Amino acid sequence: MNGPRFNEFIQSPKVRVIDQDGENLGVMYTREAMEQAQSVGLDLVEVSPNADPPVAKFLDVGKFKYEAQKKANLARKSQKTQEIKEIKMRPNIDDHDYDTKMKKVAEFIGEGDKVKITLRFRGRELSHGQLGMALLQRVQADVVETAKVEAYPRMEGRQMLMVLAPK
């Protein structure tokens, strides 16, 4: 059982007791400590079972569990999940269109997301794979300060893929 242990689990005859305000009350018998905790309307909770003697604290168990749950929820909420955003291009993309796509790439990288760049080849474009490779190398050179290449350019059917991740 991890974490604090409650009244019935304290097996040591003596414990170091800390009251609800964080004051050290010293070492006392477990029964005496339980009686003091109940007189204040709280429970005696073992917070450090491996210490010698074990450390127990006066706590309201319901409130303690509620606070722990709240802390866990807050940690979960503040956690950022990394998504993969996709940018699609063509091998003969115009300069202005390229600049617009690169602004989006920079925005996604700035938010901490990975970016998958997909070049779609149509018809006879497929025979000019070097154009696609040159375009992806240009993308790589443009984002070298903010991102690193996680998956280098590779062909998958009629598409060429590359994945960028934030540094």
Give the spatial strand order of the biggest sheet: 2-1-4-3
Q: What radius of gyration results from the CA coordinates?
A: 30 Å
| Mean pLDDT over all positions | 87
Low-confidence stretches: none
Described by strand count, sense and barrel closure, the largest sheet is: 4 strands, mixed
Short note summarizing the structure:
This protein is of the alpha/beta class and 167 residues long. Helices cover 35% and strands 32% of the residues.
Describe the model.
The protein has 167 residues and is an alpha/beta fold. Helices cover 35% and strands 32% of the residues. The protein has four helices and eight strands, in the order ββαββαβαβαββ. The chain has helices at residues 30-40, 61-77, 95-110, 129-142; strands at 14-18, 24-29, 43-48, 55-59, 84-89, 114-120, 147-156, 159-166. The strands form two sheets. Strands 2-1-4-3 form a four-stranded mixed sheet. It is rod-shaped and about 90 Å long. The relative contact order is 0.11. The mean pLDDT is 87.
Features:
167 residues, alpha/beta, four-stranded mixed beta sheet, 4 helices, 8 strands, rod-shaped
